[in-house]
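Researcher: Let's run the pair from yesterday's discussion. Sequence first, then tokens, for each.
Model: Starting with the first of the pair.
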Amino acid sequence: MAQAAKKKPGAATTSLIVSARTLAQSHFRTLRLGTPFQPRIDSLARTNDWYNWAGYRAPHSLWDEELEYFAIRSQAALFDISPMTKYRIAGPDAEAFLNRVTLRDVTKLKSGRVHYTAWCDDDGFVLDDGTLFRLSPTRFRLCSQERHLPWLLDSATGFDMTVEEETEAVAGLALQGPTSFAVLCDAGFEGVERLRVFDLAEFPHDHGTIAISRTGFTGDLGYELFVQSGQALSLWDRLMTAGELRGIRAIGYTALNRARLEAGLIVANSDFVTSEHAIRADRLRMPDEIGLGFMIDMEKGHFNGRRAILEARAKRKLRHVLVGLEIEGNIPAEHAIVYYRKNQEVGLVSAAMWSPMAKRNIAIASLARPFGDTVVDDLWVEIYAMRELQYQKLMKRAKVVQRPFIKLDRRTATPPADF
């Protein structure tokens, strides 16, 4: 006590400042949530290049983003998809409920199958897109980019069913690339050769079961595997051991993003803004405006946004179109402005790259109609390229092309080849 009384004036304040500084440093060093595979991913991380995926610490790259991309196209790439939002929807009315809130006809989705779908608000604007897995006649798993639990629960009023988020309980891996099938065979998953594209089946693993679907986000031969979190590390080890001679490598998002662009696939809140995130009214998009019009099944019963979508089609109120572009040169045009006749701004590029597979400079862009729809000539992109420490403005010609930019036969071959 006596010693405490002899402290110099201001000592307590200094102590508080030091404590606050220590606390702040501790806060910034605090890592985000880790997935069940985090111990294995951390041990492989060389670049220390992380980003926030729905509150989880996820890698942009692990060792080399260029070589990680080529692992997808020439070997087998393992990507942790555990942060992807996952909902278990089950009960007697689960099918009717999902048919009510999503665009596609769920009655046509058989057990053991998956389909890509989207869902809209009452005004017909896209809330999100994702994959719907039919696990049994009355059980489904809905996977999405964003979280929608309050909306799903509100929409479930009057239906005899339950909605439960299982993002933390279920771990997921994407195994993609030409040797992915061979890796699964070498790992002992008997019967995986019977899986067609968008098929789903359960296999024994670690005194339990694992769900394997022939799906992915790369446009390549590939699978997605879902397992209870407690069995995650044993699954990782099983795949890495089996795939050692097949060139299996763990990858980050940058490589996956390049592969999905070549496949012409879109990302919510990257290629379009979901209606819950849009602040400005002109950022909202209907399914027809982002290339998802093929999902809409007008022959089924009422679904969210049906009336608004029908009206927009009938009265030609669709204002935008999402297109694939091929751009001259080899400099990626990411986030470049698109012009008509070099002087009229008509849209914006959301994703772009020089494609090693297509040997083309490709991009996805959102354009204001009629550009990209009925007017496809004399389009240009404005690229700012760094040349000797100085940005140089380049105007490059662009033409509208079909997506996907590449189409690989091995993606749909059944059974796949043993590369």
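Model: Moving on to the second of the pair.
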Amino acid sequence: MTAVNRVVVVGYGMAGARLARELRARARDLRIIVFGAERYPAYNRVLLSSVLAGKADEGDIALAEPTSRVELRTGVTVTAIDPADRTVTTDDGTVTRYDALVLATGSRAWIPPVDGLDPAALPEGVAVFRTLEDCRRILRAAEGARRAVVLGGGLLGLEAARGLALRGLRVEVLHAMGHLMERQLDPGASRVLTRTLRGLGVSVRLNALTEAVLCDQGRVRAVRLAGGEVVEADLLVVACGVRPETALAEAAGLKVDRGVVVDDQLRTCDPAIYAIGDCAEHDGTVYGLVAPAWEQARVVADVITGADPRARYAGSRVVTRLKATGVDLAAMGDTQVEEDEEHEVLQFVDPTRGTYKKVVIRDDRLVGAILLGENATVGTVTQLFDRSAPVPVDRRALLFADLRGQAARTVESPVQIPDRTTICQCNSVTKSAITKSWLAGARSVEDVIKETRATTGCGGCRDTVEGIVEWLAASDPQTTGSCS
């Protein structure tokens, strides 16, 4: 492999920023140049809903800057790649050479083909929900609004809706499909979630196909549905999904399908160019989530620096968490399966309490789960799914807290987890780091999070972190603080 002395990273979002840190950690003398189209430093896009809800400030979601000797060029857009000369050109005319190029261009919000919605010039009071600037636009529009409409009942749409409801707006979600979050939930879970949201000030209308956005003097005033019904809106948030940002790669002659096609080392068809994160398509899958992007960043850093030239990315087992105040939801794997000869399906539903639990088992392994509402077993279920470990003989232990001790015997307890085990994959926080923060004086989950940044990525490891802190509190006779 040709020696790499200069790496150019296109994109300074969560994937690009993480890659810069991973590269620097492995190679002190490597020259790293990162281009970011957004003007501000990298931030945790997952937590934008917390900013929208007023639960966090912009400073709270800033990501740690890469260590020294990383050249950051924010507010600069890469406009062209020349694979033959191994250079990139930016919108200010600068040409930069690379030995290895990594595309971390992310994704863009998709605007549906609806009358009155011009992607190049959205009407006043209309915004997508993808970037920090989008969040600012929504908050400005919300100041004088009373009624908000959100197009899209997926993850981002529901997080935006709940955030606006917390700011006192009357919120209605219009979803074109027959149930919410159809990629992650089954219809039963959607019904319970719809009822829960209604109690939190968010009404939901399903099978609602938007026909037109109606404006008055350039400002949104209503949405017209197929069939003619008009829904008034002072604020309209379009959350209809995203599309990988592949234009730069396509113009450079790289293979593009749904995303930029990469192999198990995240290489494109050009061996000097890699792609990670939302823009990358690996083995037919575009993940669009944080944890896979950061797993990919580690592999690329190993390969480029030679720390592990044989490193491979084998795909990710994804756990989706809905980050909306008052809603506790985790979904993973294949959740649409019904009981058959190959699958066991356990369910418990209590709509009044907003509880819906479903686990899908095949060959004594957990292959899918939905945990909505009271979900004290979510840590155990997540570990079983992530590690593809055998499920307990008494399957009820996966659903009910008073039986979870039986499931815990299947999953490693904190004392059995080796110190080197990575607990927070997003931030590479090991069990040892959590223990050290505890010994240094962090006496609560929130203190540990502040010291280690565990759980601040996708949030899927929070239950495991809480379990370790509870174990430390129980085993440390000097403890006087709370682990809540």
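Researcher: Give me one sentence on the second I can quote.
Model: The CA atoms of residues 142 and 235 lie 7 Å apart.
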